Amino acid sequence: xxxxxxxxxxxxEQTARSDSAGVSVAAAAWRRLRRNPxxxxxxxxxxxxxxxxxxxxWLAQHDPTERMLGDQVSRxxxxxxxxxxxxxxxxxxxxxxxxxxxxxxxxxxxxxGVLATLIGFTCGLVLGTLAGAIGGWVDTVVMRAVDVMLSxxxxxxxxxxxxxxxxxxxxxxILAVAMVQVPIFARLLRGSMLAQRHSDHVLAARxxxxxxxxxxxxxxxxxxxxxVIVQSTLVLAISIIDAAALSFLGLGNPDDRIPEWGAxxxxxxxxxxxxPHLAYWPAACIIVVALGFTLMGESLREALDPKSRR
Amino acid sequence: MALLEVRDLSVVFKRKGExxxxxxxxxxxxxxxxxxxxxxxxSGCGKSVTSLAIMGLLAKxxxxxxxxxxxxGTELLTLSNRQMRDRRGQELSMVFQDPxxxxxxxxxxxxxxxxxxxxxxxxxxKEASVQAAELLDKVGIPDPKRRLTEYPHQLSGGMRQRAxxxxxxxxxxxxxxxDEPTTALDVTIQAxxxxxxxxxxxxxxxxxxxxxxxxxxxxxLCDEVNVLYGGRVVERAGRHDLFRVPRHPYTHGLLASIxxxxxxxxxxxxxxxxxxxxxxxxxxxxxxxxxxxxAIDTCVEVTPAMEADPVVAGERLLRCHNPxxxxxxxEQEILT
Lengths: 310, 336
Description:
Chain A is mainly α. Helix content of chain A is 72%, strand content 0%.
């Protein structure tokens, strides 16, 4: 029975693919994604993470800044509060509830990831549009700048930009991470804009006397956005890792009352021998969330890329 | 004075480190209002480049356009980008080969029709929508109001080409260039689209330049035919004259190579030997000489000039040293 339905499904999919010109790209992509376990797994992680982050103020049992287990902390005897009633993961180095800090910390991760990606996306969009639409020397200048930025490893660039600011704040972290993403977006958009510039429908629009501005914003840009939007889900994962790395290296928000996974990981270093769980938990959170966004982004890219259709 | 006068139009592509390549080499022809002129030839003969040059759509860098293309007395080739842009879609318009890729996939058909009306006629979105529905109706698209809200992928191939024609004719241009408008369509739809074009041109006195490699299209639609080879016009004649008495060996070969339903069983097709790549530069003789069954020594020594046909009467021009004798004509009745 199941093999029969499988066969029918396969046939249906073949038919759908053979006249894919008649089906919208999005609908065809969705049909493929719905059955892709990798996508479903990644999407499940992302949805769970976003829901947790948004609901964390209500989910967290305790104030993440209050040292409620402070009496169990003893530097001299190397004591850190163990898991106990009401505190399933125990406390951190100064006696704050670890689970609550992890939950509230997801907010920071989500915010930094989304804002950094948005800023990177916007700046990349402007630069890529300029380079792709105007061409000539504008293109050369923008693309050489992009090449220079791309030649520096992403994390190193983020650290360098982060270190430029005398006093790091939440915003400088976001900015540093965002700047690393700008060249990726700019380059990607320019590439698809150039492909659009020589496409038949842009030639047809020019043959109708459509003005240059309308050609760029109505005919070229909307058709070029696909790969850039897909890229942004991948960039989200990179942003989360980069932001955590900056905090880990002490270039993040110095206010340690606001929990942040990367900073928690950094603080756990000194106790890594005696209390490794302090490092495991934030590290696991970072890995799982980054993995979720990566899996989702990769399968999205694959589904929308006509060349990788299996 | 004709509506469009093309004189000695040449397009040379210049790439760094490569020999300059003349895609179009001294092409001249006239188009009168209401007249349909065909540009015929195989791939690479320069027919599309000719049309792009007239429309001012060729790249500015690496391309040298010379000669003259006068539209209603105005020289098009020296107009500024802005002046040319104001005329495109308004006075001269174009229909392309592949209707799917010539439509913007992410915006609705309606927006693509109204865009050109808003641009050139200065209509509001609302007025333009009303006109757009009328236009779609005129080109034979049923339920035009609903179609306006649909996207190109929701339309059939024939429907898309009708929509493109509606867009091209939206501002009632005086000259329409159709670049192989039926090549991407199946045969029954081809006939419908050609009939539609013929009807619209007749009704509105629009001049039409028909670019095609399909002699059936020529037979059905064109008043006058220019046969191109290697970037030059090799023969020009009225459609009936050309089919009845092809004089240039290339035209003769094209007509002879059409498969015929009434041919005896087992008879082989008679192709033109060689390919377009086997030509010689026009400067040293006739480009068609290496493939020509009639070639004589003069053909590779002297470039033939475009002259009135010495034997056959009528308004026809010929570029050949040794044309096909009128007696050898192909007995072909594909005029429909």
